[in-house]
Design the sequence.
């Protein structure tokens, strides 16, 4: 009876040896080759650019500076970085949402992957989104225009997991190269896009991709060739995509009351604009977009044209809009 267990153990050992012996031999050979090198050079040879990146990061950090690591599903990499960046306080996060949800999350972020580098939150957010779109199909309108205004664009975050972007598609419908000037208001940021005849361009986070910032506002688009385009307000967490129309300016708007909604007031002018909200007189700053809440039906009037619309959310996080026609 004692012979059978011994035979079984021998069989198991031989079956494992078939796979482990080559690995052990490789490890022994590498150890012999690395032995003459100083410790730091051994680590560089073993871990390559990853280790060099960790050491460069350590050289720029004070000993008491906390660090956030975005490691994806590779928490082993995060533990390795913890070891070499000690005594600094470190926190590991699988993704941007877990970083946002973390209490007292460190401001400095290191993206751990093939290379190790410091990264701004907005850049980490963009890297995680990649090139995917929520709006489908991503097709421009049939109509063309050379100048128009988009009443709301956004790149930013809401409650945890809510992630707002503006998706867009633009096609040069002319027979000459198109120069498109895009101004984001009220910040006044300006970007220029060049499109060959018939060329189509798409964006899944227009504000960040054009202006390298997280912000919200409205757009004025001007081109020297006719454009076919379409823009969407997107919450990637739901996911939800709402088509954004061109703003149609007027001097008077009537907005019905809806509990929990916001009313948006857009001044397209380069000057302060006097307006009446119900019976009260107010002013809108130049090129501003202001959200307000109002407890009853609202009539907005002005001596010059403006645009007014309404938005609200449901329990799932989907956003809805009322785009009224003024008079």
Sequence:
């Amino acid at each position: 009876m004692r012979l059978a267990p011994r035979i079984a153990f021998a069989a198991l050992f031989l079956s494992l040896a078939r796979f482990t012996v080559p690995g052990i031999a490789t490890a022994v050979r590498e150890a012999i080759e690395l032995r003459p090198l100083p410790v730091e050079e051994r680590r560089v040879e073993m871990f390559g650019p990853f280790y060099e990146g960790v050491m460069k990061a350590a050289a720029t950090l004070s000993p008491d500076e906390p660090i956030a690591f975005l490691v994806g599903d590779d928490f082993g990499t995060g533990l390795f970085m913890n070891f070499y960046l000690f005594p600094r306080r470190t926190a590991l996060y699988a993704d941007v949402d877990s970083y946002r949800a973390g209490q007292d999350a460190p401001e400095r972020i290191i993206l751990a992957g093939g290379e190790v580098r410091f990264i701004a939150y907005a850049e980490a957010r963009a890297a995680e989104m990649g090139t995917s779109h929520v709006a489908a199909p991503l097709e421009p309108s049939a109509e063309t225009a050379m100048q128009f205004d988009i009443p709301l664009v956004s790149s930013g975050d809401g409650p945890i997991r809510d992630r707002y972007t503006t998706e867009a598609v633009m096609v040069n419908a002319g027979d000459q190269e198109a120069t498109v000037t895009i101004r984001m208001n009220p910040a006044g940021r300006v970007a220029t896009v060049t499109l060959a005849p018939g060329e189509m361009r798409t964006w899944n986070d227009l504000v960040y991709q054009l202006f390298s910032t997280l912000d919200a506002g409205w757009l004025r688009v001007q081109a020297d060739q006719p454009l076919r385009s379409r823009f969407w307000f997107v919450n990637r967490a739901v996911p939800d995509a709402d088509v954004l129309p061109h703003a149609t300016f007027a001097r008077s708007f009537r907005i019905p009351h809806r509990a929990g909604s916001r009313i948006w007031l857009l001044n397209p002018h380069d000057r302060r604009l006097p307006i009446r909200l119900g019976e009260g007189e107010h002013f809108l700053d130049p090129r501003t977009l202001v959200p307000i809440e109002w407890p009853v039906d609202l009539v907005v009037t002005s001596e010059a044209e403006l645009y007014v619309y309404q938005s609200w959310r449901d329990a799932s996080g989907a956003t809805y809009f009322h785009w009224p026609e003024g008079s």
